[in-house]
Amino acid sequence: MQNRIFLILISILFFSCQQDKNVIRIHPDQVISTDFIGNGVQWSAYPHADTENAEWGKLMTDAKWDMNFHRLDYMQAKLFRVFDQANWRYLVGFDKEGEPILDFSTPEVKAVEKILKYAQENNITVLLGEVGTPYKVHDLNEGHSDKFSGADDPKWINGIVAYLDYLINTRGYTCIKHFNFINEPNGDWSSVNGDFKKWRAGVELLAEGLKAKGLDSLVSIAGPDAVTRYDNPNSTYTGSGWVEETAKQLDDIVGIYEVHDYTEYDLVRSGGFEEYHGAIAKFAKQMNKQIIFGELGFSRNGQENQDKTNEDPFACEDSQMDVYKFSYGVDMADAVIQSMNAGYSGAAAWALDDAMHTCGDLGNKNELKRWGMWNSLGTEICNDPADENMRPWFYSWSLICRYFPTGSSIVKTDSTSIEGLRLTTGIYGDEITVAIVNNSAVDNTITIAMPTSKSLKKFLYVDGERAVDANGFPIAVENDIKVNDVLELNVPANSFILLTTLEY
C-alpha cells in the first residue's frame, strides 16, 4: 500500500514538472537590453519628386505627404533612418576656386524638414546620413566628379557639420540623435569601396568637426553602417569584421553601433538570425553601447524574385517583390523579434515607400525600388491607384513599432522549443507587450506565464484574417483578455500575434 502511494506521489510530481516545462515564462528580472530606442522605417525625402526642380517635378503634393503622415500616426514609429545626399539638398555648386556653395534655404532642404518636423513633434529618433562623397556616387552632375578628394576631404566634412548645425541649432531638430557617415562603406558599391582606413579617416575628421562646433553632445556618429553578411573582396575585413574593428579602433568616436542586413529567409525561419546577429551585437555590448539595424529587409537575389521584378514594368532589379505578399509580414516580424532577443535596440525597415528611390537614384520612372509598404506615386508613375494602398506587411510592422515604446526593457522569454515559434517581450513601466511569430506550417497551442494582472489586447495577423478599422489600420481581435497567471494561446501556422496591456 505504501509503495502504491509513493508511486502515485512520484507520478503526480513528475506530471507537475512536465506541465511546468510546457509553460513559457517571461523573466522581467533578466534584462536583455534597456532604454530600447524602438523600431521604425527608412524614409527619404523623395529626391525625384519633392520639388519643382526634381526630375519628376513636385509630384509629392501636400496630400501625398499627409497620406504618409496619417499612416505613420498609427504606426507610431520610434526610429527614422533618413537616407540623403549633400547634392540632393544643400550643396548647390562650386565657386571659381572650387569651394562648395552651401544653401540651407533650398526647397530640397525644406522637403527634408517635413520629415524632421514630423519626427520632432512625435518624439522619433532620427538617424540622418549621406550616401557617400558627393559626386562620387550617383553622379548626377557631370564635370563635378573631381571636386572632392574622398571621404576625408575637409570640404565635404565641413559641409556636413554646417548642415547639422543648421538643422539642430538653427531649426531646432533635436530629434536628430545620430549621423551615419557613408552608406554601407564595406560594399563595393560605396564611395570608399570597402576601404576601412579611408572610412575611418573621414569618421575621425567628422568627429573633430562636430566637437569644434559643439555638436558632439547633441548628435553622435553611428557606425559602421556595414552590411554584416557581405564580404567585399576589396576590403581588409569581413562585414561583421567591420563592426569588430570599429569597436577596436573607433569606439571613443562612435556613439552607437549600426548595421544593415538583407537577410535570407532560411536564416530567419530556422532561428539562426538571432544567433548570427547576437554574435555581432556582443561587440557593442562589450563597449556598453547600443546597436541598431539602420536597414533591415530580405535578400532580393532569389530567382523567383528576379523573375517577378522583370515582369513589373516599373520595378528595377533592386526590388523585393515579396512586399506584396502576406508572408513578408510574418518574416519581417520574425526577423525583428530575433533582433530584439539578440540585444538590438531597434530596427528600421527598408523601406517605407517605393516612390523614394530608383536604381542608382537616376530618376528613371520604370526603375522604382520596390521595397515599400506602399507607393505614394502609384497613380502618377504607374497609372495604378491601388499601388498606393497599404501592403500586408504594414500590419505586423506597425504593431511592432507601436507597442514597443522608446525606453522599454527587452527581457528574456523562455524558448518555446517549437520549430518556427518565437516570442519577445518588452516591459514599459507596469505595461507589457509580447510579440509572437509562428513561422511554420503547423498550428500550435502554447501556455504563457504572464507577469501582469492587467487585461490584454490581442492582435492577429494571419492570411485571410486581419482585423482593420475604416482606415485599414490594425484593430484588436480581443480587447479584455484576463490572464489569471497563465494564458493559453492558439498560434496559427504562418502567423503573427501581439499581446499588450498598452493603450493609445
UniProtKB/TrEMBL annotation:
Gene3D superfamilies from the UniProt entry: Glycosidases
Pfam families: Cellulase
Ranges where the Glycoside hydrolase family domain occurs: 38-307
Keywords attached to this entry: Glycosidase, Hydrolase
Molecular-function GO terms, alphabetical: hydrolase activity, hydrolyzing O-glycosyl compounds
GO BP annotation list: polysaccharide catabolic process
InterPro entries: GH (IPR017853), Glyco_hydro_5 (IPR001547)
Family matches, as SUPFAM superfamilies: (Trans)glycosidases (SSF51445)
Family stated for the protein in its record: Belongs to the glycosyl hydrolase 5 (cellulase A) family.
Name of the protein in question: Glycoside hydrolase family 5 domain-containing protein
Natural source organism: Labilibaculum filiforme
